[in-house]
Write a structure and sequence with these properties.
alpha+beta, 2 domains, 6 helices, 13% strand
């Protein structure tokens, strides 16, 4: 009667064992499910963090690109400013170089003029060497050569016709003028302060002008000096060189001055340019 108990025990053991196995599988499955859920949440957190990092990186990259653009603009502006400064500096250097060149040219022309005056002075002194210092004087002043001839050398008192001695002196001077045609010649008539009024001459000014014109005619018509380089003018008593209150002073004031100067065409042309 005791034999049937064994199968029951075995069946109960198998049932209990089956229950234990099923619970273990359940626990493993639950652990796997919770792990999967945790892994999914972790992955989601990771993805969200990555998205934030990417957004921050993109913003940083955009800022860097903007800074790069601004830097390029600044470099271009600096290069433009540098090119402008270089251009202005080049212009300034060119202007200074041109000015220095002009100054050297002007200095050359002035030196040439001074040498011409020096040569002219020597030629005139040599040509008029045989005349008395009381009759004429030669001097250089302000880049011009002055020949002062007394009225006694050239004219009779109160007259404007050049005498023979005066013609001789003017002929000597004409030889110099005909060799140097690049000079301007001015003939100035001067008188003393004593008034004069005749049927021929209205006053001292009138006399001084006609005397200057008479000298010009002798130089141009008799001795061939070019009329294009010679000009007469009368100063009357208004430019004395001595005291009109003495006879000696008045005698010195009665004179004809022949003023010679190298032409300044080159100098004027350069100044205009």
């Amino acid at each position: 009667m005791r034999k049937p108990a064994l199968p029951l025990i075995i069946a109960a053991s198998l049932a209990l064992s089956s229950c234990l196995v099923s619970r273990k599988k359940y626990e493993i499955a639950e652990a796997g499910r919770y792990g999967a859920l945790y892994s999914r949440d972790s992955l989601a957190d990771l993805l969200e963090g990555s998205r934030i990092d990417v957004a921050n990186l993109s913003a940083h990259l955009e800022a860097m690109l903007q800074d790069t653009t601004n830097l390029r603009d600044a470099i271009r502006q600096y290069q433009a400013m540098l090119n402008t400064n270089l251009s202005e500096n080049q212009k300034l250097n060119a202007s200074l170089s041109e000015r220095e060149k002009t100054i050297r040219q002007l200095e050359g022309i002035i030196n040439e003029q001074n040498q011409k005056v020096k040569n002219l002075l020597g030629s005139v002194k040599d040509a008029l060497l045989g005349f008395s210092s009381e009759d004429l004087s030669v001097r250089e002043e302000g880049g011009k050569v002055y020949v002062a001839m007394s009225d006694k050398l050239l004219f009779e008192s109160g007259k404007a016709v050049v005498n023979e001695l005066g013609r001789n002196a003017l002929g000597k001077l004409a030889e110099v003028l005909n060799r140097q045609t690049d000079i301007d010649v001015y003939i100035e008539g001067h008188t003393d302060s004593k008034p004069i009024k005749t049927a021929v001459y209205k006053d001292n000014w009138d006399l001084s002008v006609i005397r200057a014109t008479s000298v010009v005619r002798i130089l141009t018509e008799v001795y061939g000096v070019s009329p294009m380089q010679i000009q007469p003018c009368g100063r009357g008593e208004f430019k004395p060189i001595d005291d009109n209150n003495t006879a000696e002073g008045r005698a010195r004031n009665r004179r004809t001055e022949i003023i010679m100067a190298p032409k300044l065409d080159k100098l004027f042309q350069m100044l205009q340019e």
